């Protein structure tokens, strides 16, 4: 044969998955030339010393091009026959040294083989047999031998002799001391058979799928094969080192035995396919089973055996050891650690979930950001889910502690203080205690739930900025007027000031989520009674009232420039699949027990076997549509307790009444069309003038009323009354239904001089002596006659109101005048009539009336007594 062939006379197509060396040897054998000549023909360097690096590991690009040109096999096909395609995925190569890195991914040299495959394919070798991950032939169900059964040399291991001229299925080892070649037919080598259902075969198939992904160039999708192989190596070496019989499902006996006999530490890839099979099958099992309980328990056993005193092992060490591995594996390790960790750390590492992850310093900003999304007190709905049926000692502390605990997942430090102050809590909170209580009672689901919520808050949009809500002072929230107006709308009795304060506090908490124990002073709760007042609100509100309060709250927020929903909670479906202590409340039953049967909420809660707080939440979610009486007399519809007079509430109620009565239509008719004065409207409606003016001002009707063209009061009449009859300003003003100030203005306008105050003309001594002594004290000035006479006339009517109408004045004027008389005479003149009774004089009153009649006959000019009422002829001068 001559060297320097341009192309090979015989062409041999590589088999699928064949290794480069196998193909080259076959080519040489078929071409009846030496291996060395084939290498030279293909332009692949041969060294003078007769050995060369194993080309099957790596082919330089130009080598591949040249070999491709000569052999007719495309260059990429040639590359695919080298380990290069697995580089960085299933093993790591030193490219120029053309060696496999044994420190990573269990890299190994040499090649295992399937004798039966060799036999079937003319002794040709598969590339995959060189990988540490190949330990069984799934077709022939055998473990792969790794050495020649005769000379015991590892196959395809070490440098390649270029002088060998053997078919690839023969052992090329040079035997010492004879120097002869072994030449054992490896296709006939014995191999250990595996059961058809052997887990070893299943795990080899699983691994083969991964290798398929690499070969098909699909190694980028997560988790990448590289990550998985890395995990497999770590788990397999760990298992080989510490697993004991019984830890895992049993494998084929010879595999089990090989594993137990194995003395290595698993750091490097075990030579034996049986040991490799044992380690990797258990490793694949662990990854496949995932969060399965038994699997976690197995891992926990391994961890415990590994670290003798796991409780004392710093979490940081465990983290360091596993953090280079895939997320999936780390999650399994932390789940296995969960029962060994303090509750705080279980939350920080999220080890109580199926997706644990160690906290990281970088997470601190995340914690701060999450604090903006958490209220001071845990949401009511979630409180109801997390609350044990027996309740807790202090619901406020419970809710506050769990809100703080929401900041723990991912927190880099174990300290609570910064987290507590992030939520604006001023008091110390024993978060440890709350978490320990829950865990002790077996309510681990709460910890898991907290992690789920934290994850949700970190990743999903949250419509409320709780940090801003925490800062709300509640200034101007629900003043008496607004409360009364809401009550009027919703048919609720406004109650006393205490009720308003409770509702205001309730609304403040509903809006802000704040702890009322540290609210601004005007809203702060300091006593148990105050706390009780707020706690009872959900058991008093009706659907209409709650709706109105919420609408009010929303407007309040808008007023502050906050365009957010009033309340919000993380979705309830985050609790799906969790075992939580809070049981759902049967709404109908709760309504029946409390509303229809009048049971106290606490009693009803006990009977239903749920926490009181859960019932409270239930009533908030499903407030009864109509109000109901309660045994404690706490219904808010019961009007039997009137509003305290002179209270802000009473004033608000009056205002509310004014707004209701004085409709636009009413004001147009009475004020604009009938040109009635405020005074007139007041006397007709019995509303205070102040409120009428207020409503008028707001209605904007004042400007629409045309000013009077003629003077209201006749000048001559005024002169007659004020100057000649010397009546007082007050008396005339009362008669004209105007204020003394207005009257003064009128008088001045027509040039009448105003008398100095106190210039009343007294009754003359002679006149005084002519009247019975009984009425003398009342005669302080001339007008007194009028008062006395009026009194007598009034007593002929059934009521003061009727009398006032008849006398052409108002009830209040009569009342004031008679009160003055009584004051002067020092006796009560008439019995204040109750409902249904008629006006009647007392005995003293009757005596005064008689004395008046007696004196009238005796008094000079008795018929000109000033009655305070102008004669009919003067009324319209
Ligand atoms: Zn096979
Ligand atoms: Zn041999």
UniProtKB/TrEMBL annotation:
Stretches the record annotates as Disordered: 852-877
Pfam families from the UniProt entry: HTH_1 (PF00126), TniQ (PF06527)
GO molecular function: DNA-binding transcription factor activity
Domain HTH lysR-type span(s) in chain numbering: 788-842
SUPFAM superfamilies xref list: Winged helix' DNA-binding domain (SSF46785)
Domain of life: Bacteria
UniProt-listed InterPro entries: LysR_HTH_N, TniQ, WH-like_DNA-bd_sf, WH_DNA-bd_sf
Name this protein carries in UniProt: HTH lysR-type domain-containing protein
Native source organism of the sequence: Streptomyces viridochromogenes Tue57
UniProt lineage: Bacteria, Bacillati, Actinomycetota, Actinomycetes, Kitasatosporales
């Amino acid at each position: 044969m001559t060297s320097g062939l341009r192309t090979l006379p015989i062409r041999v197509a590589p088999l699928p998955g064949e290794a480069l060396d196998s193909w080259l040897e076959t080519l040489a054998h078929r071409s009846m030339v030496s291996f060395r000549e084939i290498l030279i023909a293909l332009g692949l360097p041969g060294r003078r010393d007769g050995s060369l690096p194993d080309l099957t590991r790596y082919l330089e690009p130009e080598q591949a091009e040249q070999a491709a040109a000569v052999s007719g096999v495309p260059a990429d096909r040639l590359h695919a026959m080298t380990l290069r395609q697995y580089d960085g995925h299933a093993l790591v190569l030193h490219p120029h040294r053309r060696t496999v890195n044994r420190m990573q991914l269990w890299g190994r040299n040499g090649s295992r083989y399937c004798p039966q495959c060799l036999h079937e394919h003319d002794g040709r070798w598969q590339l995959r047999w060189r990988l540490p991950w190949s330990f069984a032939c799934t077709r022939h169900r055998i473990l792969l031998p790794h050495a020649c059964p005769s000379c015991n040399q590892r196959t395809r291991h070490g440098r390649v002799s270029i002088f060998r001229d053997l078919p690839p299925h023969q052992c090329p080892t040079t035997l010492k001391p004879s120097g002869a070649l072994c030449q054992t037919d490896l296709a006939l080598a014995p191999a250990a058979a595996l059961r058809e259902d052997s887990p070893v075969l299943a795990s080899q198939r699983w691994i083969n799928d991964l290798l398929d992904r690499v070969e098909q160039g699909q190694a980028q999708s997560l988790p990448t094969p590289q990550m998985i192989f890395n995990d497999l190596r770590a788990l397999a070496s760990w298992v080989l080192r510490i697993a004991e019989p019984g830890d895992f499902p049993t494998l084929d006996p010879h595999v089990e035995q090989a594993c137990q006999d194995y003395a290595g530490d698993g750091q490097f890839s075990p030579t034996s396919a049986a040991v490799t099979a044992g380690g990797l099958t258990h490793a694949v099992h662990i990854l496949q089973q995932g969060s399965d309980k038994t699997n976690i328990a197995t891992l926990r056993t391994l961890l415990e055996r590994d670290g003798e005193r796991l409780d004392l092992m710093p979490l940081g060490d465990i983290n360091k050891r596993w953090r280079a591995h895939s997320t999936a594996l780390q999650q399994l390790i932390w789940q296995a650690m969960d029962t060994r960790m303090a509750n705080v750390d279980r939350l920080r590492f999220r080890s109580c979930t199926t997706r644990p992850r160690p906290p990281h310093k970088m997470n601190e900003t995340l914690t701060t950001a999450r604090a903006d999304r958490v209220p001071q007190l845990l949401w009511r709905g979630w409180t109801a889910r997390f609350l044990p049926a027996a309740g807790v000692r202090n619901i406020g502390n419970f809710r506050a502690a769990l809100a703080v605990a929401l900041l723990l997942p991912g927190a880099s430090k174990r300290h609570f203080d910064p987290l507590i102050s992030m939520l604006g809590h001023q008091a110390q909170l024993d978060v440890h205690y709350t978490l320990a209580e829950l865990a002790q009672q077996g309510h681990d689901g709460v910890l898991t739930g907290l992690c789920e919520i934290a994850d949700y808050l970190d990743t999903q949009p949250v419509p409320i900025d709780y940090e801003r809500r925490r800062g709300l002072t509640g200034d101007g929230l629900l003043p008496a007027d607004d409360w009364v107006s809401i009550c009027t709308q919703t048919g609720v009795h406004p109650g006393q000031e205490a009720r308003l304060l409770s509702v205001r506090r309730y609304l403040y908490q509903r809006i802000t989520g704040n702890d009322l124990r540290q609210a601004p002073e005007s809203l702060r709760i300091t006593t148990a009674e105050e706390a009780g007042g707020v706690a009872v609100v959900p058991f008093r509100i009706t659907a209409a009232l709650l709706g109105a309060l919420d609408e009010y709250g929303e407007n309040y927020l808008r007023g502050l420039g906050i365009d957010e929903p009033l309340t919000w909670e993380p979705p309830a479906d985050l609790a799906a699949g969790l075992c939580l202590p809070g049981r759902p409340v049967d709404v109908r039953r709760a309504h029946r027990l409390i509303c229809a049967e009048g049971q106290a909420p606490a009693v009803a809660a006990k009977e239903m076997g749920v926490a009181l707080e859960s019932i409270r939440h239930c009533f908030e979610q499903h407030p009864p549509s109509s109000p109901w009486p309660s045994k404690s007399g706490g219904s808010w519809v019961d009007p039997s307790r009137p509003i305290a007079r002179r209270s802000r509430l009473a004033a608000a109620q009056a205002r509310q009444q004014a707004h209701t009565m004085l409709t636009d239509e009413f004001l147009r008719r009475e004020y604009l069309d009938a040109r009635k004065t405020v005074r007139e409207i007041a006397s007709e409606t019995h509303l205070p003038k102040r409120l009428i003016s207020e409503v008028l001002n707001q209605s904007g009707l004042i400007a629409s009323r045309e000013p009077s063209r003629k003077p209201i009061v006749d000048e001559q009449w005024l002169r007659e009354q004020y100057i000649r009859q010397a009546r007082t300003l007050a008396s005339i003003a009362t008669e004209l239904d105007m204020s003394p100030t207005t009257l003064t203005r009128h008088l001045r306008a027509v040039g009448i001089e105003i008398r100095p105050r106190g210039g009343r003309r007294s009754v003359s001594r002679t006149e005084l002596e002519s009247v019975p002594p009984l009425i003398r004290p009342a005669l302080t000035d001339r007008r007194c006659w009028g008062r006395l006479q009026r009194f007598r006339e009034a007593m002929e009517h059934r009521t003061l109101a009727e009398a006032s109408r008849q006398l052409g004045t108002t009830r209040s004027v009569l009342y004031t005048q008679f009160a003055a008389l009584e004051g002067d005479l020092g006796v009560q003149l008439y019995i204040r009539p109750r409902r249904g009774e008629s006006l009647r004089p007392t005995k003293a009153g009757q005596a005064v009336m008689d004395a008046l009649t007696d004196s009238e006959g005796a008094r000079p000019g008795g018929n000109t007594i000033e009655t305070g009422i102008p004669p009919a002829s003067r009324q319209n001068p």
